[in-house]
Amino acid sequence: MALEPHVIHALPKVALHDHLDGGVRPQTLLDIAAEVGHTLPAGDAESLGDWFFEAADSGTLVRYLETFDHTIAVMQRAEDLRRIAREFVEDQAADGVVYAEARWAPEQHLAGGLSLSEAVEAVRDGLAEGMIAASNAGQTIVARQIVSAMRQNDRGLEIAELAVAHRRDLVGGFDIAGPELGFPPERLGEAFRYLQRHNLPYTIHAGEADGLESIWQAVQLMRADRIGHGVRIIDDVEPGDHGEWRVGELAAYIRDRRIALEVCPTSNLQTGIAPTYAQHPFGVLDQLGFTLTVSCDNRLMSGTTLTEEFTHLSSAFGYGVDDLYRFTLNALDAAFLSGPERANLQRDVVDPAYMLVN
C-alpha cells in the first residue's frame, strides 16, 4: 500500500538535486520584482505559482529552462541571494529534509554588479541564516551550496577555481548545468581536471536531455562522483524473452560501482522522460540494483516538494518506509559532506526517526 503523505513528511529526507533559482517562493519573486522593476507574468503568489508550473509542464527541456529568466532576474543583489538561500533552507527543513544541497550558477548573478566571490558569499550567508532559523524552530538541517558552471559558456575553469577557492564557504562541490544536448561534458574537461587536482567532488547533469554518450562522458571521461538525473541510462537496459532484463556494459558499470543517480521524477515527466510516474524508469532501475536518490530539481517549476516526490513513487511502485530509508541512505552516502558529518546525521537524526516508525 502507498504511504500516506503525512508519514513521508515526518521522515528525515535528503535532497541532492535542487536548484536555488528553481525553488524561489512566489511571494518572494513578487516582492523583489517590485523593488527591481522586473515584470512578472502574474500579480499574485498563487497565480504566479500556477504560471510557473504550467510553463514548465510543456514536455521539453528548452521551454522548461525559459522559466528561469524570471527567477534569475530577482537574484542579482546580495540581499536577494541571501534571502532566497535562507528561505531555501527554511522550506526544506519544513518538509523534513535534514540535508540539502542548493545548486546554482554564480555566473548568472552578476548583472547587479556583484563579483563571483560576492555572490557565493551571499548564498553562504543565507544558508547559514537558514540553518540557524531552522535550529531555533527545533528542526535539524545541514545545507551546502553546489557551484555550477553553465555548460554552453566558456567559464568552466573559472567557476571550478571559484568553487575550490570558496570550499570553506559552505561550498560542497561543483556541477555543470544548462542545455545538455549539444554541449557534452568533455567541453569542460579542463574544469574537471582542476577539481580532481584539488580534491573537490562534483556531479554532472547527464542523461536527461541527451542519451548514453553524455552519461558515458560524464562517468568515464570526467569521472563524475554522481550523475544529475541520469535516467536515460535506461536506454542501455533491454527486456529479455523471459521477463528478465539485459543490462548493457555502461549501465552495469554505473550500477556495480554504485554511482548515485539524482532522480527527479516530476521534473522528468515535465521534460518528456516518461508519461506517468508508473512508467518512469525509476522502478526498473531500482529493481536492477542501481543506486537511486530522489530530489525535486525545481520545486517552483514542478510545484512539488520532496514529500510529494516520495508520495508519487510510493503510489506508483508500492514503496514503504524501508524503501524510503534505503533511498535516503543512498543520498546521504552520496552527499558532498564529510564522512563524520554524514555518520552523525545518520546516527543522530535519520536512524532514530525511522526506528520509531518501524
TrEMBL record:
Keyword set, alphabetical order = Hydrolase, Metal-binding, Zinc
Q: Which Gene3D superfamilies match?
A: Metal-dependent hydrolases (3.20.20.140)
Q: Could you give a GO molecular-function term held by this entry?
A: hydrolase activity
- The UniProt record lists the EC number as 3.5.4.4
Can you give the residue ranges of the Adenosine deaminase domain?
Answer: 12-350
UniProt xrefs under InterPro entries = A_deaminase_dom (IPR001365), Ado/ade_deaminase (IPR006330), Metal_Hydrolase (IPR032466)
One Pfam family of this chain: A_deaminase
- Cofactor or coenzyme needed: Zn(2+)
Q: What class of enzyme is it?
A: hydrolase
Q: Which family does it belong to?
A: Belongs to the metallo-dependent hydrolases superfamily. Adenosine and AMP deaminases family.
Q: Which PANTHER family match?
A: ADENOSINE DEAMINASE (PTHR11409:SF43)
Q: What is this protein called?
A: adenosine deaminase
Which lineage ranks, top first, belong to the organism behind this chain?
A: Bacteria, Bacillati, Actinomycetota, Actinomycetes, Propionibacteriales
